[in-house]
Specification:
The complex is a heterodimer of chains A (311) and B (290). Chain A has 13 helices and six strands. By secondary structure, chain A is an alpha+beta fold. Chain A folds into two domains: 155 residues, no CATH class; 138 residues, 2-Layer Sandwich (Alpha-Beta Plaits), CATH 3.30.70.270. Helices cover 57% and strands 11% of the residues of chain B. In chain B, strands 1-3-4-2-5-6 form a six-stranded mixed β-sheet, sandwiched between helices. The chains are: A alpha+beta (311), B alpha/beta (290).
Chain lengths: 311, 290
């Protein structure tokens, strides 16, 4: 579940950079002390860490890769260096699972921690794993995993409560339908006209295939901003589908909506994007018929949206 | 986007954690140790019964503080047995929490590290401190990303998934829009403010959302005050509808009604409601038509 909105901040980069420097320092220390056979590991790992830092710095969205590289370095260091140190296995057994939990998303972290249980017990338990050590390890894994669960819960809640799309300034599908339902009822109650303008952006797929995702996002954003600029404060733009938008026009008669459609078509045609050229849109008007029930109206809008996209 | 979040799985994880902690408590050597671990198991089990997908706000402050305090106490009372838990400080920082609590966690972590000096010897002690600091910073960096996302949408997101209950910061903007629409449509719009006790606020909000129409939004102005914009074709209709709404809600809340043309500032009306003695006060539009 990669999520570019949750890219790791600079702090992550800082920790990686400091880790790299520490490994370089350790390699130099071994060189000074003449432990030549021990230099290879920190020297190699400092290179890997440097790569991880550079990846995280270059493209924050792919920091997942550098997190995995850091984890591999950490595990190798723990496996090779720590068994040498005498004493306190209860302390060091807790380090690898927490490192995995801090770096990885929930699923991989849990799998890795459970799968590596015997490995860590054998390596860090000084040969004879006692049941107390295993129980402590498993309890730590079970309890610490809860933090990641809570983060997922918080994120899911934020997504479920945010009425706006992440890619463009438009309402999400659920919010759009809720808003439309409200406007539909309001129009019925107050006997006011309601119009809905169905908008389709046929170039979106092409933009992604030929120019990449950034071009597609730029197109989405430009179209939404242009549309919002042309309409009133009480009109609402929502995203019904990947390339389909509904513009809700409360208190708008058919002639008013036709005028707006014309104005929008002109404005969007004049909008020229750097990579993809002029914006192309397909527009169609719809309004509730007298006596038409709510489910029938939505079904009609959705059917019209489909035909608009396949035209 | 499919979310990996499943309430059932999280609850299962909570129960497994509670079971394992309970097992550790049963094998504890001292009474204090057993009590602390038992308390931790209890906390996990109670959280398992409470966790559900509804409330946007995290649990209350004491409930969030408890894990940190328990961890510090465990490391203080029986450090030799619970050394494994030392690393859990880094995980604790990953939870969404207020800033001052992050600071408190860092202080507690430093204190528990400090007193491990005798037990570990200087070399291991220094190494453990360095590694924990690195892990805590990694945990913090993840927490910051989530906090940023949370800050960005805090003022515009609904408060409970699926309910038209919005934060109070949204209200002035919506009042402005309804003013324009009221001129256009010639309808009667009024702001109904309800003040109740802290405990009843969320249940009252749910009932209010259920009773209002799909185009009437509800707002949470503070811990005790709710607001709703009521829209009716005319003033008589509005009075009848408001009365029916208040009857349906019962008399557990004080109410204040302000017709939109007479509404100055929302916060002034909110303060007036807090001081108001009568159960209901109405500020109607002056009737010029006579």
């Amino acid at each position: 579940m990669p999520d570019s909105r949750l890219a790791r901040p600079r702090l992550f980069l800082l920790v990686l950079g400091v880790g790299t420097l520490l490994l370089v320092g350790q390699a130099l220390w071994f060189y000074q002390m003449g432990h030549y056979q021990r230099i290879a590991l920190p020297a190699l790992l400092s290179l890997v860490m440097a790569v991880a830092t550079l990846i995280a710095a270059a493209e924050p969205a792919t920091s997942r890769v550098s997190a995995y590289l850091t984890l591999i370095c950490g595990f190798l260091l723990i496996a090779v260096e720590l068994p040498d140190r005498a004493g306190a296995p209860t302390l060091w057994i807790g380090l690898p699972p927490v490192l995995a939990l801090v770096l990885l998303p929930l699923g991989p972290a849990v799998l890795l921690n459970l799968a590596l249980t015997p490995v860590w017990l054998a390596l860090l338990g000084e040969g004879a794993p006692e049941p107390g050590l295993a129980a402590g390890y498993l309890t730590l894994v079970a309890v610490a995993t809860l933090a990641l669960w809570d983060r997922l819960r918080q994120r899911a809640l934020l997504r479920a409560t945010d009425p706006w799309e992440t890619e463009c300034p438009a309402l999400t599908r659920a919010s759009l339908h809720e808003r439309l339902h409200g406007e539909f009822e309001r129009a019925r109650l107050l006997e006011r006209p309601l119009a809905v303008l169905l908008i389709d952006l046929p170039q979106l797929d092409m933009a992604r295939e030929q120019f990449g995702d950034a071009a597609r996002r730029a197109m989405l954003d430009a179209a939404c901003r242009e549309i919002i600029q042309q309409c009133r404060d009480l009109d609402a733009l929502g995203r019904e589908d990947d390339a389909a938008f509904w513009l809700l026009l409360p208190d708008t008669t058919e002639s008013g909506a036709l005028l707006l459609r014309q104005r929008l078509a002109q404005a969007l045609a004049q909008r020229v994007l750097v990579e993809t050229g002029p914006l192309e849109v397909r527009l169609r008007l719809a309004a509730p018929r007298p006596g038409e029930p709510w489910p029938a109206f939505v079904a009609r809008l959705q059917a019209t949206t489909q035909t608009l996209a396949t035209d | 986007m499919q979310s990996m979040y499943k309430v059932g799985l999280m609850r299962a994880n909570l129960l497994v954690a509670a079971g394992l902690t309970g097992y550790l408590a049963s094998t504890a050597a001292t009474l204090q140790d057993a009590l602390l671990l038992g308390l931790a198991a209890l906390w996990l089990a109670v959280t398992a019964t409470q966790v559900e997908f509804s409330h946007r706000h995290p649990a209350t402050i004491p409930w969030q503080l408890l894990p940190g305090l328990l961890l510090a106490a465990l490391l203080w009372v029986t450090p030799a047995r619970h050394l494994t838990w030392f690393w859990a400080w880094a995980v604790l920082l990953m939870l969404p929490q207020p800033r001052w609590m992050l600071g408190l966690t860092a202080v507690l972590a430093a204190a528990s590290w400090w007193q491990l000096l005798e037990l570990l010897g200087p070399e291991q002690w220094a190494l453990a401190g360095l590694l924990l600091a690195g892990l805590m910073l990694l945990g913090l960096s993840r927490s910051l990303a989530l906090q940023a996302m949370r800050r960005r949408i805090r003022h515009r997101a609904r408060l409970i998934p699926g309910l038209p209950l919005w934060p109070g910061q949204q209200l002035p903007q919506d009042v402005q829009r309804e003013r324009q629409r009221a001129c256009l449509e010639r309808v009667h719009v009024e702001l109904l403010l309800l003040r109740t006790s802290r405990w009843r606020l969320w249940s009252l909000a749910e009932r209010l959302c259920a009773l209002t129409r799909a185009f009437e939004h509800c707002y949470r102005l503070d811990r005790r005050t709710l607001g709703v914009l009521l829209i009716s074709p005319d003033a008589q209709g509005a009075a009848a509808r408001r009365q029916a709404l208040l009857d349906a809600l019962g008399d557990r809340a004080r109410a204040r009604v302000v017709a939109l043309p007479r509404l100055g500032s929302v916060s002034r009306e909110r303060r007036a409601l807090a001081r108001q003695a009568q159960p209901l006060e109405i500020k109607e539009v002056a009737d010029h038509a006579g």
